[in-house]
Design a protein that fits this description.
The complex is a heterodimer of chains A (373) and B (198).
Chain A (H helix, E strand, L loop, with lengths): L7 E5 L3 E2 L5 E2 L2 E8 L9 E5 L25 E2 L4 E2 L4 E5 L14 E2 L4 E2 L9 H8 L1 H5 L5 E7 L1 H12 L4 E7 L7 H15 L17 H15 L2 H7 L19 H16 L2 H13 L2 H4 L14 E7 L7 H13 L4 E6 L13 H17 L2
Parallel strand pairs in A: 5-8, 5-11, 6-7, 11-12, 12-13, 13-14
Antiparallel strand pairs in A: 1-4, 2-3, 4-8, 9-10
Helix pairs in contact in A: 1-3, 4-5, 4-8, 5-7
Chain B lengths: L1 H10 L5 E5 L5 H9 L3 E6 L2 H9 L3 E4 L2 H4 L8 E7 L8 H11 E9 L4 H10 L23 H10 L3 E9 L2 E4 L5 H7 L2 E7 L1
Parallel strand pairs in B: 1-2, 1-4, 2-3, 4-5
Antiparallel strand pairs in B: 5-8, 6-7, 6-8
The chains are: A alpha/beta (373), B alpha/beta (198).
């Protein structure tokens, strides 16, 4: 499979100084676009992806051959309507679908970077993606939208570039990663590192892959994306293709089989070191600390209009954390709407066919676009 | 209802920042937005209503006015509106003081429990009054603290709240409430509209 045939990317030839102190230059940023940019160039929407997402938001992902990760929300006639808007999404740096990441080869050593790759932050990801505006000659975006880690990028984007977008929609996100979320990420990282095939991050140069570790990391993380009620309703204690317990450690229960499947398909599409790097970026994200303990300061001077959305059953990025963003914005009089959507699908609600969410998103985007004309 | 909106709109100056507390589905917000050149925000407790407002492009946050007004700094709005919801709060006194902290001024409208039809209903039928503005039964009404125009006057006096403008609404007719006609207006008005300031 030749990835380069289907992956668009631009080479960023402006040096980017990373938060870790290193400077990178001439690095690739892979992206995908949907719809078309109008003459006024006022209909561009930059979508930011979450931890395991990629630039293939909608349509069929050419690598996995599955639907894009946000196909329910993005497409012709959808909430983010590609008949009306020009949608751009880039693979984050540190990722593994064409953007500069730990699976790239270091030209100096001719070896895959692995863990010699510099530590990346949300701030670095956003600064890298800002180059897309210049590339597409867009002076000001219509919207920046993203859920989860994508929401962190939305917040960071407005903070870094206060007047580069008319509206911003952070969804199911936070302004700083909680101890619980750092703990879950660390569990995933330790699972990868405990796999002997990880080989201190050098597996690619040794023709190995820490499949087991990465798969367990995905299984653990997947539980955090769902809710207790959602799991109970979907799986309960149902058995997997058997009438009775087998008195063994096979996947007797459907939920076990489901998680194992999620783990095994994940290793085919995701790089273990990217998983380490991106979870680290999320853990380091703290917009409050970046602004001396005052979140409002992160947004001072912006005219961007915000809509913050959370979900009732999301315990990973709960309503309370989303509300903190709303409070900080209200404290300095920024135009901010907020709604908590009723759903039992947990954190994953934003990726699924949650109709009240998708309807609200669609109406908000369309009326905001018309009001801005 | 429209009459109430018109009176509220007349009390609002253009180029001001306004907050509609308990904005419902945003009907008043839309009306004011179209009539007055203002920057208007809303806060509403019902998810369904909030989704409708957001869909209309109104800036509304989901929240409980009894808790969530605290996020707004002192004097962050020129005017705060509370339309026919004061009686539904657990602690109306606290809500009024929050309105006057967040807003430089506030417009409060109340269904008048002193209205003669309400009084007559209780007097003759001996059951809790049901009228056009108070359509619910005692067991399912959201209204916890009904009051009369006279009660509201007394409250403002006691709390040293300045009553800038008091208007009585009787069907389609509106009239000014003064100290001299207060007793009569308390009998004839369906709705009281008050512009107050601390």
């Amino acid at each position: 499979m030749n990835k380069n045939l289907t992956i668009k990317s631009l080479i960023i030839d402006k040096p980017l100084r990373l938060d870790c102190g290193q400077t990178i230059n001439n690095f690739p940023l892979a992206y995908e676009t949907y719809g078309s940019l109008n003459e006024n160039k006022d209909n561009a929407i930059l979508v930011f992806h979450a931890l395991t997402g990629d630039q293939f938001v909608s349509g069929v992902n050419p690598i996995t051959k599955k639907d894009g990760w946000w196909s329910y929300a993005v497409g012709s006639g959808k909430a983010i309507d590609t008949d009306k808007y020009f949608v751009v999404c880039a693979n984050v740096i540190g990722g593994c679908l064409g953007s500069f990441g730990p699976s790239n080869t270091n030209p100096k050593t001719n070896k895959v970077y692995g863990t010699t790759f510099p530590i990346i932050t949300i701030n670095d990801m956003v600064n890298a993606q800002h180059n897309l505006l210049e590339f597409f000659k867009i002076k000001k975006l219509f919207a920046v939208i993203g859920g989860s880690m994508g929401g962190m990028q939305v917040l960071q984007f407005v903070s870094n570039f206060p007047n580069k977008t008319k509206i911003a929609i952070p969804i199911a996100t936070t302004s700083n990663h909680s101890a619980q979320n750092i703990a879950f990420n660390e569990l995933g990282r330790q699972s990868i590192m405990a796999d002997v095939n990880w080989a201190n991050g050098d597996y690619a140069n040794q023709n190995k892959n820490p499949d087991k570790g990465l798969s367990v990391a995905r299984m653990a993380a997947h539980i955090t994306y769902l809710s207790k009620n959602g799991l109970q309703e979907k799986f309960g204690r149902k058995l997997q293709e058997r009438d009775d317990l087998k008195f063994s450690f096979d996947a007797d229960f459907q939920i076990e089989s489901y998680l194992r499947h999620q783990g095994s398909v994940f290793v085919d599409r995701f790089d273990a070191n990217s998983y380490l790097y991106i979870t680290r970026a999320m853990d380091y994200f703290d917009l409050i600390k970046q602004h001396d303990g005052n979140l409002s300061q992160a947004f001072s001077g912006t005219k961007t209009k915000f809509l913050v959305i959370s979900f009732t059953s999301d315990w990973l990025y709960p309503t309370s954390e989303n509300k903190e963003i709303v409070i900080a914005l209200n404290a300095i009089g920024i135009d901010v709407g907020f709604v908590e959507i009723e759903s039992d699908k947990g954190h994953d609600s934003f990726l699924l066919k949650t109709s009240s969410f998708l309807d609200t998103l669609k109406d908000y985007i369309n009326t905001s676009y018309l009001n801005n004309k | 209802m429209k009459q109430e909106f018109k009176i509220i709109a007349d009390l609002i100056q253009s180029n001001t920042r306004v907050l509609d507390v308990g904005c419902g589905d945003g009907t008043l917000m839309e009306f004011l937005k179209n009539n007055n050149k203002i920057d208007i925000r809303g806060i509403e407790i019902s998810k369904n209503n909030v989704q409708q407002c957001i869909g209309k492009g109104l800036t509304v946050i989901e929240g409980d006015a009894e808790k969530d007004l605290s996020q707004f700094p002192d004097g962050s709005f020129d005017l705060v509106i509370l339309s026919q919801t004061l009686q539904a709060f657990v602690n109306p006194e606290k809500v009024i003081s929050e309105l006057l902290r967040v807003g430089k001024k506030a417009i409060v409208t109340i269904p008048n429990f002193g209205y003669w039809k309400v009084r007559l209903h209780l007097l003759i039928k001996g059951t809790m009054p049901i009228t056009r503005t108070l359509p619910d039964e005692w067991y399912n009404t959201p209204n916890l603290h009904m009051c009369t125009i006279q009660d509201f006057f007394n409250f403002c006096k006691k709390r040293k709240i300045n009553l800038y403008n008091s208007i009585a609404l009787q069907n389609l007719k509106s009239s000014k409430i003064t100290n001299t006609n207060l007793t009569l207006k308390n009998l004839t008005a369906v709705l009281g509209i008050f512009l107050i300031e601390k």
